[in-house]
Design goal:
Shape: globular
Radius of gyration: 34 Å
Helix content: 25-40%
Strand order of the largest sheet: 2-3-1-5-4
Length: 241
Amino acid sequence: MADEQEKQDKPEQQQQPKQEKQAKKPKPPKGGGGGAEAKAEAAPAAPAEPVEPAPRARLMDMYEQQVRGKLQQQFAFKNPHQIPRLKKIVLNVGMGDAVKNPKGLDAAAAELAAISGQHPVVTRAKKSIANFNLREGQPIGAAVTLRGGRMYEFLDRFITIAVPRMRDFRGLPTKSFDGRGNYTLGIKEQMIFPEIDYDKVERIHGMDITFVTSAGRDDTALALLRELGMPFRGETPVAAA
């Protein structure tokens, strides 16, 4: 009889630890979910400083409010997506003696960055030319591509400040289109830009500026640039509002 009582008492003793395990509190999940909430409660969030929005470019507002409607009425565009717009402006500086004078290329890149407000990309030779002592991959210039608001800001400064400072300026030529609505202009001196310091200029050089549009035709691209205020030869430039 004593043995039977011991056998009956053993399962009761084995069930007791199971009940104690169930009574324990569950552990917090791994991954720091609860810890992160505790830290967030402990550390109060710092008040965010108000960020002032940058002012929009003047020519961008002028294009959306005035130029688009004039072009649509002038060329009778049925679809608003057919109205030409300025896609990008590319500034390109070529330095023929960059192989012999690498410091001159660095100075030209620094001046291009000051003019455009954007870091330029160093352009390299696509193929080797023995007559010019040029090898493939050697740095020969710098280029910058502007889009969006920075593009319109550069165009505004170029039209209102830089172009009037050209020597013997009589207007920009109207025959510099490539047949697809893109306009390329060559500048002989970088001194026309107010960002260039005369005392720090090591060498006077020119640059090419290409205005890429979505027109696809020269006549609509010419009308677009004319309405934006480009002073073409023999015409009265449109004043920006």
